[in-house]
Amino acid sequence: MKKVLLTGTASAHNKGDATMQLVVSTELEAALGDDIRVAIASPSPSFDVAAYPDRLVVASVRRSRLFPVSLAAAGLWGVLNRAFGIRADALLFTDELRWTESADLVVDLSGDMLTEDYGFLVGFSHFIPLIMARWLRTPYVICAQSIGPFSRLKPIAKWILRRAADITIREDVTRERVAGLGLRMETTADVSFLLQPDTAGAAEVLEAAGVPTDKRLIGLSVSPILKQRYESAHPGASFAHAIAESVNTALHGEDVHIVLIPHVTGPATRHDDRIVAREVAAMLTLDHTNLEGEIAPPVLKGVIARCHVVLGARMHANMGALSQGVPVVALSYSHKTQGIMDSFGQGDLVVDGRRPLREELSADIVRIMDERDVRAAAIRSHHDEVVAESRRNITRILDRLDA
């Protein structure tokens, strides 16, 4: 039996993280059946055990004060094993260490977190599981990510990434960000494009929330990250007001209903999209519904499929739209956004969320409404190619397991 440990995600509160975990585990199990066992390493195991009821969840020390002890234990185990041939398994004192050592492959699903874009400590935390895998002599792959840039983390990034068994990236912008590291990478597409929507579940959620069925739905995804960056760039300005004003202006007189779709709900309140969504909703003059519950990724994708267009600050919400032919205006705070929109020929509808928003965002909303059907057809023309690129990640993982 093959054993695979999936690592790099934070919590199933983040529906993009949950989507990547669900897709990779489901696809590997579909390919190998009873011949594979997949575990998910999670820094939020108490929540994720319920979120992944059919998966084994092991606690990850990546965000705890225990990480230096785990790293030291893995390092000592590796020295004893390499120098003296000793398996000092008493050092493997956590499920994460035991799983990392016994796995045939560690698959990292950090998305866009192998970077210093979110600070040194956040970036370093995502290298911790890979350092443990390296010292415990377990092959690891970097799966479908946006990587870099690096500054203080550059030596660690070079040491770890150059020793990966495989690296796939989801847009070519990454190549520029890590050009000095000498990495071998293959451009594919995010694994999230393989997620199947739960249309029945979506219908139930929308009906329970009282969303009308006779109006065009406009999906709106907001993000505390973008709020923080926008308000840092424009002291005294309100991100929520800028978004609401743009939507009110652009869609005034349209027969639409706004659905605010939360894609991250925690674990800390500072990460919760719903808090920002409430601020935006309070300023909307158009009919709207603010979805508040914990909604599973397949159901969220089904909700997005019902939308006429999506205005998205969360990239996995945008991917859920693009993979179903729903046009998107993407609010960007990272290089990942431009690359993924380009892959569907929609790169001209990326709005840098750190710039003044109102005029540009309003103009793009008007444009996407006018061009909706043409945009949808263009997106669908790229669908099969992007999904095939997404599936190549699974094929490459299976090839590594065979090797």
In short, what is this structure?
The chain has 403 residues and is an alpha/beta fold.
Radius of gyration: 21 Å
Describe the global form: globular
CATH topology of the largest domain: Rossmann fold
CATH-defined architecture of the largest domain: 3-Layer(aba) Sandwich
> Which structural class do you get from the secondary structure elements?
alpha/beta
Number of helices: 16
Query: In CATH, what is the homologous superfamily of the largest domain?
Result: Glycogen Phosphorylase B
Please report which band the strand proportion falls in: under 5%, 5-15%, 15-25%, 25-35%, 35-45% or over 45%: 5-15%
Give the rounded overall mean pLDDT: 95
Domain count: 2
Q: How would a textbook summarize the main sheet?
A: 7 strands, parallel
Task: Please give a structural write-up.
The chain is α/β, with parallel strands linked by helices. It folds into two domains: 2-187, Rossmann fold (3-Layer(aba) Sandwich); 196-382, 3-Layer(aba) Sandwich (Rossmann fold), CATH 3.40.50.2000. The protein is 48% helix and 15% strand. It has helices spanning 15-32, 45-51, 67-84, 95-102, 120-135, 154-161, 173-177, 199-208, 224-233, 239-251, 273-283, 297-305, 315-322, 335-342, 358-370, 372-402; strands spanning 2-7, 36-42, 56-59, 105-108, 140-145, 166-169, 186-187, 216-221, 256-260, 288-290, 309-312, 328-332, 350-352. It is globular, with a radius of gyration of 21 Å. The model has no long low-confidence stretch (mean pLDDT 95).
